[in-house]
Fold:
Amino acid sequence: MKRNVEELTFNHSGIEVPAGTSHSLFPTPVKLFELSEAGMNAELAAFFASHPRFSSRDQAETSDVTNLMEYAVEVPALNRLEGLFLACLENYCREIGWRGEFDLAMQMFPNVAPKGHYVPSHNHVSHISAVYYVHAQPSDRPLLVSDESVRDYWRPDEGALILHDPRFNASLQGGWQYHAKVFPKPGLMIFFPSFLWHEVTPHQAQEPRLSVAANFTLAYRNLPSYERHSVFSC
Ligand SMILES: [Fe+2]
Structure:
């Protein structure tokens, strides 16, 4: 007959083991840059406010189907923003150990988020992603919070960018689940690997939150001789 679990005790008393060594392997590199670009932000905000594209009903659904650099001639601030993205990309790549010459594919697309808008959980089809905040409602929270409990995960914070634990099904492992929240402010540029699942909670400010996202796909130029490259159609 099966005994009650209360009657059973696993016993390891008297067994000594070494303290062991800990290694924080495979961290996820997320980098924040705090930029002071009031003039650029004002020009970009005026562009978002005046161009009819950003007031159309489907602007959120179609935000990533074009490249903002299409408007660079009429909005010079976009050239400045592209340069800032690239300078921070160089910094980020060096930090994660990517050195050398690359073919780079880059897309910049807008996020105009009116009151109540949210972005469901997703990741990006590229290698490295970034977001620059042109305008966001003020928050008294730190820029990045990464030491919350799982219980805090469920609190409906306003206008937070939530970064999810990228380990496969981490939530099913109980104590292995972590998350981080970013409370953005104007001038913040954040870089992260594109595989990192993230979402944005709604904000209640009257004016839209304005940000620009960027995707980077990089291919080393010094290809190994065993790789054959050609055009393929199907
Ligand atoms: Fe995203």
Notes: The domain at 28-219 is CATH 2.60.120.620 (Jelly Rolls).
